[in-house]
Amino acid sequence: DVRFGIKTGANEFFYLTEAEINRRKIEKEFWMHKDGKGDWMPNYVIKSPRECKSIIVNPKDLKYRVLMIHKDKGDLKGTNILKYILEGERKGFHKRPTCDSRGKWYELEEIKDVLLSRRFIDKEFSFYINPEKIFVGDTFFVIQPTVALDIKLIAAYLNSTLSSFFLEI
């Protein structure tokens, strides 16, 4: 199965650096999530292939965090994230077509998977392994194999000269 990464409709609203998050005092539950062990982990997001230093995605190379807000505004009273949402509305983000098409304009679908493909071909066409299942922006396609196969083997084939040849054809 192949699908787009996260389509925010307003990257400047949803993708923030930790410095910006700290400056705005956004509560951690909106830019972090709990991993399988119950530890808080930042919502790293791969915004561009230029951030990937190798075919294995490393969170340390990623500059941005994605906001994941899964609550109604009424449940956000007294929070800094509500102030940020209202600021976004003053800037008209909620009226953009992609944002306006969602039930809550500020609620994104969580898209992350282990195999990624560049959406746009430039000088190279690469496939990336995302072992930590970091959130993926819409400059990528997210690939979910429908049968149990070794992801490293799939990535090796997809990054091979033969695969590049078939893509060119």
Commentary on this structure:
β3 and β4 (40-42) form a beta hairpin. This protein is an alpha+beta fold. It has helices at 11-14, 18-24, 80-90, 97-100, 151-158, 161-168, and strands at residues 2-4, 15-16, 32-34, 40-42, 45-46, 65-66, 115-118, 127-129, 135-136, 140-143. Helix content is 25%, strand content 17%. The strands form four sheets. It has a four-stranded antiparallel beta sheet with strand order 1-10-7-8, with helices on one face. It has a two-stranded antiparallel ribbon with strand order 2-6.
Which features would summarize this protein structure in a list?
alpha+beta, four-stranded antiparallel sheet, two-stranded antiparallel ribbon, 6 helices, elongated
What shape does the CA trace take?
elongated
Largest sheet: 4 strands, antiparallel
Helix content range: 10-25%
Taken as a percent bin, the fraction of beta residues is 15-25%
Query: Assembly state here?
Result: single chain
Instruction: Report the structural category.
Output: alpha+beta
Strand arrangement, major sheet? 1-10-7-8
Low-pLDDT regions: none
Radius of gyration over C-alpha positions, nearest whole angstrom: 17 Å
Q: How far from one another are the termini? A: 22 Å
Q: Give the overall pLDDT as a whole number.
A: 92
Give helix and strand order, one letter per element, not per position: EHEHEEEEHHEEEEHH
Count of distinct strands: 10
Number of H/I helices = 6
